[in-house]
Structure formats: structure tokens, C-alpha cells
């Protein structure tokens, strides 16, 4: 993909997979193959003596045989989405689970529970569920099905069936021990993935910060411009000879102000969420690569133990065989998901930056046409005045 090679200079050593492009074309050209449609809408505030929280309506329509009905409607709060994400990570440690918005996604920019905050989160939660629905493996996860279909009390009961505290502590201890030991024979492909993600993370974080700074400066410019037009209108009341010109300037400023507001909406809806989503994706992918290394580290430690043990070789050999299968499954899952994620990322980035370019073109064309129209009207008025002065 030559166009992407120009835009994406993160790692020329990681070529775009032809198979991932084929998958994308199938997805785009055959949307009728989708059999699961999810909508997140209708946010609703709940105030109790202990807390205030928002629930969202999750509507699911499906033609899948494993569902008892073709349509479901449930209400979920943010904590339920967090539970689903943790269950997916637990069941599929080397798959790329879509990111959720942080608990305070717009902290410092808008107030919590404001309409803007709630709408931003609703869109992110909607995208989260649809990313899972479109994933070839995650979409068939049993916890995902329960999340979409169970009533609140049923979900609450199911959530209590999670692993015990001691089990979770044991997993954490093994993971830490494995990461400390390191990996001896990591395949080159995963080293390249790791290098790619380190560079990608750095670049996407910089882009995210710059985009937020541009949006902040645009908002400041917009707020000042809103005061600029009325000043010309007030001025026209005391300048009879140039009153029409001053009112014309005020009208142009007002039109440019509205165009600026539209451009800001384009940034906040099309660019900022995409960039921030991939900031979160970069963190998720680094975690996935670490978990893959932990699985391989466990295999390496068993192989070392077998080499140093003279007894129990049969038992160790059986454990090593199981771990080898586990590592192979983890590697294959990550390789397949990597191609898919990379293709989606490139498509999302291309779309986001194309939208920004088109919005900027429309903005400048609209502002230019506004001021050109004003100048043309002033030239006509000036010509009329000169003609009247020349008459005897």
C-alpha cells in the first residue's frame, strides 16, 4: 500500500499483510454477512444515597441460532463494560481487546455527567461493543453474549462467579515471575512487533497532544471571534457614512464564526476520538505482547527445569508439551489479530485525516467566499458613489 507507506513511517520492516487486505475487502464489500447489530443509546442518570451513575440502553439485533431471541434490550453502566473487558482479556490473553474510554475520559475539559461528557462516553461504548461484534473470535465469547442479553440481576449473579481472590493472586504472581525471568527465544516477528509498537506509541501520543492543543486554540479563537462581530454592529450605530460596511463586516464575521464552530465539531467528532482510541490501543498491544512473552517464559522455565532434573522426566515432558501447544496457540492468535488490527488502524487513520482535510477545505472555501462576496458588494457601492459624484 504505497499511500500508507508514505503516511506510516513507523516501521518499514513490518510489511502490510496481503491477507489482511483481502479480509478488509470482504468486510467492506459484503456487509450483509453481518448477523449481530448493537446500539448504545438513551443515557439515564441514577442517583442513590451512595453514588450517582449513568446507565445506557444496549439494544442487540441478531439472526444467530445460539441466541434465544432476535432482539434484546438491556441497561448497562460503565462498571459492566469494565467487567466485560476484563473477562475478554482473561479468556483471550493474546487477542487485541478494544479499548474502553477511561473513567474520566475528558477530565479537565468538561464536567463529569455533563451532556458533552455523557455523549462522548456513549459513542466510545457503542464503538467498543461493535468492535467486539465485528471480531471473528471475540464475537462468540459467552460472557459477551451474557452481557448483551442478561437482565441486571442475572448479570450481577453471573459476575459473582468469577475467579477467587487467591486464584487471581496466583495468576499475578506467575505473571510477574515470568516477566522478571524474561524470554530467551522470542521469535523475531514478535520482537519486530514490539519495536513497531514502541515507535507507534510515541508517535500517536504526540499526535494526540498536538490535536488537543489545536482544538484548544481553535476554541479560544472561536470565543474571541464571537465578540468581534457585535463590536462592528455597535460601531455602525455611531458611524452613519460607513454603517453598511461595518454591518457587512459583522455579518461576515458571524458566518466565519459558524464555519469555525463546524470545523471544531469535525475535529472533536472525527479526529480526537480516533487518535485517543489508538493511544489506548497502543497500551493494550504492549500488554498483549507482554502476556505472550509470559506464556513463553513459563515454557522456557519448564524446559530449563527438565534439563536440570534427572527424575520426573515424563511428568515434565507432558507439561512442556501442553505449554508448547499453549505458546503456539498464543502466537497464532496474536499474529492473526495483529494483521487485522493493523489494517483497521491504517483504515481509521486514513479516514480521520481525510475528513480533517476535507473539513479544512470546506472551511476555508466558505470563509473565502464570504469575504469575496463582501468585497464585491463594497466595490459596487463605491462605483455607484463615484458615478453619482461625477453627475452635474
From TrEMBL:
GO biological processes: autophagy of mitochondrion; endocytic recycling; piecemeal microautophagy of the nucleus; protein transport; reticulophagy
Coiled-coil blocks: 306-333
Signal sequence annotation: none
Residues in PX domain copies: 34-155
Top-level lineage group: Eukaryota
Listed GO MF terms: phosphatidylinositol binding
Keywords, alphabetical: Coiled coil, Protein transport, Transport
Assigned GO CC terms: early endosome; phagophore assembly site
Family designation: Belongs to the sorting nexin family.
Protein name: SNX7 protein
Amino acid at each position: 500500500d504505497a499511500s500508507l507507506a508514505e503516511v506510516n513511517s513507523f516501521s518499514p520492516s513490518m510489511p502490510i499483510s496481503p491477507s489482511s487486505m483481502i479480509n478488509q475487502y470482504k468486510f467492506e464489500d459484503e456487509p450483509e454477512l453481518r448477523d449481530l447489530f448493537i446500539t448504545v443509546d438513551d443515557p439515564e442518570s441514577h442517583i442513590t444515597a451512595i453514588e450517582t451513575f449513568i446507565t445506557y440502553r444496549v439494544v442487540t439485533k441478531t439472526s444467530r441460532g445460539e441466541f434465544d431471541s432476535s432482539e434484546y434490550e438491556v441497561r448497562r453502566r460503565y462498571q459492566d463494560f469494565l467487567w466485560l473487558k476484563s473477562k475478554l482479556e482473561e479468556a483471550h490473553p493474546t487477542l487485541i481487546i478494544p479499548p474502553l474510554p477511561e473513567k474520566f475520559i475528558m477530565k479537565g475539559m468538561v464536567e463529569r455527567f455533563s451532556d458533552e461528557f455523557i455523549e462522548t462516553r456513549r459513542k466510545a461504548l457503542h464503538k467498543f461493543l461493535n468492535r467486539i461484534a465485528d471480531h471473528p473470535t471475540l464475537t462468540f465469547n459467552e460472557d459477551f453474549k451474557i452481557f448483551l442479553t442478561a437482565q441486571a440481576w442475572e448479570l450481577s449473579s453471573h459476575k459473582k462467579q468469577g475467579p477467587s481472590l487467591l486464584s487471581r493472586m496466583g495468576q499475578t504472581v506467575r505473571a510477574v515471575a515470568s516477566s522478571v525471568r524474561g524470554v530467551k527465544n522470542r521469535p523475531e516477528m514478535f520482537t519486530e512487533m514490539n519495536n513497531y509498537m514502541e515507535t507507534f506509541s510515541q508517535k500517536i501520543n504526540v499526535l494526540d497532544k498536538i490535536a488537543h492543543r489545536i482544538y484548544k486554540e481553535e476554541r479560544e479563537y472561536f470565543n474571541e471571534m464571537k465578540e468581534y462581530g457585535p463590536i462592528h454592529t455597535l460601531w455602525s450605530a455611531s458611524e452613519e457614512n460607513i454603517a453598511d460596511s461595518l454591518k457587512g463586516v459583522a455579518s461576515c464575521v458571524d458566518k466565519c464564526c459558524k464555519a469555525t464552530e463546524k470545523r471544531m465539531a469535525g475535529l472533536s467528532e472525527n479526529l480526537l476520538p480516533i487518535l485517543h482510541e489508538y493511544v489506548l490501543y497502543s497500551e493494550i498491544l504492549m500488554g498483549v505482547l507482554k502476556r505472550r512473552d509470559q506464556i513463553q517464559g513459563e515454557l522456557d522455565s519448564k524446559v530449563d527445569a527438565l534439563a536440570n532434573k534427572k527424575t520426573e522426566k515424563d511428568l515434565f515432558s507432558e507439561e512442556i508439551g501442553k505449554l508448547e501447544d499453549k505458546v503456539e496457540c498464543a502466537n497464532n492468535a496474536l499474529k492473526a489479530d495483529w494483521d487485522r488490527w493493523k489494517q483497521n488502524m491504517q483504515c481509521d487513520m486514513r479516514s480521520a485525516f481525510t475528513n480533517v482535510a476535507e473539513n479544512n477545505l470546506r472551511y476555508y472555501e466558505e470563509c473565502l467566499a464570504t469575504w469575496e462576496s463582501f468585497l464585491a458588494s463594497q466595490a459596487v457601492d463605491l462605483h455607484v458613489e463615484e458615478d453619482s459624484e461625477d453627475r452635474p
